[in-house]
Design a protein that fits this description.
By secondary structure, the chain is an alpha+beta fold. The protein is built from four helices and ten strands, in the order αββββαβαβββαββ. The strands form two sheets. It has a seven-stranded mixed β-sheet with strand order 1-2-3-5-6-10-9. Strand 7 and strand 8 form a beta hairpin. The radius of gyration is 16 Å and the shape is globular. The N and C termini lie far apart (52 Å). The relative contact order is 0.16.
Length: 176
Amino acid sequence: MPSRTKNTIIESSHRHWLKRVLGMRTNGQVGIDVFDREWGIELKCKLLGPGKYQTAISVADYQVREFPRDSFDRTLLWAFLYYKFSHPLEKLGDRKNYTHYVTERNIYFQPWNFIDQFPTSKGKLETWRYVRRRTVLEQEYEPIEVKGGTLHIPRDCSLIKKFKPELFTEPDDIPF
């Protein structure tokens, strides 16, 4: 099975996991991955572990520009998901489901404009932005353990109200 096909299967399972955890819907088409009336979440996944895996996540620049136009009535968020498998991907072979091999899943939410700090880079067919894991992890989050992984949500993100409403801090209330 080509690695792109494996990635599609794996990303689909993460998308369905996130949908269940957040109580939202998934989009089977092009567009925002997970959504409800209030939020639209674009999920980006990266396998961590031994081997030659890069930790930067690539984001197509058209998503940065077009998704807000298509979802103007929702608060848009990025969800950067980093995960590990119990075995190297090459040893897992061709499967229709890789979920039970996931040993660690951490997902970091950021507002849509978080991506603006990363410069665009022209590829052969598309313009990309590369989100460095180090930059994602440098932000402050409230970790929330859920079945199958950990959500990391900034306190000023209204999504935290779904899990711990007492921790939500309006952006204007942050003392500095």
